[in-house]
Amino acid sequence: MTHASTVPAPAAERPGHHDPVRPAGGGRRPAATALTALGLFLAARLSGVLVLAVVARAAGKNPLLLLGRSWDSVWYLRIAAHGYGFTQQTRTGVHSDLAFFPLYPGMVHAVTTVFPLGGGAAGLLVSWTAAAVAACGIHRIGLRLYGPAVAVVLVLLWGLLPHSVVLSMAYTEPVMTAFAAWSLYAVLTRRWVWAGTLAALAGLARPNGVAVAAAVLAAAGLEVWRRRGRGVSHRLWTGAALAPLGWSGYVVWVGRRRGDPLGGYFTVQRLWGSRFDFGRGALSFTEHMLLHGTRLLFPMALVIVGVSTVLFALLVVDRAPLPLVVHSGVLLLIALGGSGFFESKPRFLLPAFPLLIVVARALVRTARARPWHAAVVAGALAGLSFVYGAYLVVLARSPL
Description:
two-stranded antiparallel ribbon; globular
């Protein structure tokens, strides 16, 4: 880790390309700004949970049960308690627990083994801890590239996304984002073995964890190209080799278990109604939604995906570091090109925190020129996040 005294003064608003080798700013009092960012993030998420609790109690429901045992959480907790092998016959087909990646249930199982906690409580403990670790990693990236103000706002924005309620649930997005953020930070600081190891763990957390491996491989490839293949450290080759092992290892393991090493996992996903069809299914669903109308969460998902696409274009124009662009681009491609569970697409984009960089920089500029305007924007985002999060978990009655 670079010592604070060796980092140049902040250059957060300097236009142009940011060299991932050299810090672009924000070395003063990193621990203090990290605590500020983490405190604001925790305050945002606790406020969201409190609003959700009020709505749940009014609806006669248990808020902790909703947070700990909703939708996919039930599958993960069953795997944590009993291992793989459960299938469920529904009107849409046979659903297998092999569709769910193993890292999160493994962590939950470890917690229940060490501490006297039930599965739901252990799942929440893992998710809440991972969300805090992810917030620290996001802050560190923002601090290195854009300075302390942007770093703090970046973390706060991530905690105020419309679907950020998922970060307070027993879901896998906090775990994947934690490994993704610190893997990307390791890439930016040339810690290749760490980058590859953390990318492999991200790939064990979620299907779209492959985006982290893609980012590491892209950065490693660029480094090899810059050096024309000469003088490349063995650590780079090791990190690049490690990065895809988590995702590919689980996919092959499921395939072998299903009797089809390369295609078995994707067959499991298709039985769930989830496949990559280059967006044909999503376009068909969007057309149906626009023509016939539907519940609030579907148009909201469409808006969030649309805004994310615009933010990705702005991230590219802003010439953000390659690993951040690749990570976000692959996550966006999977969300756009995937068919099935349209309402879950915003959740799939939660680990794409670099998309918020352009917004964070703009909000910092606004806060410096017109503090009141920035406060209104932050307040509006918080209101939307808290109310919509409560609606999703308590009232929507649809898979997240």
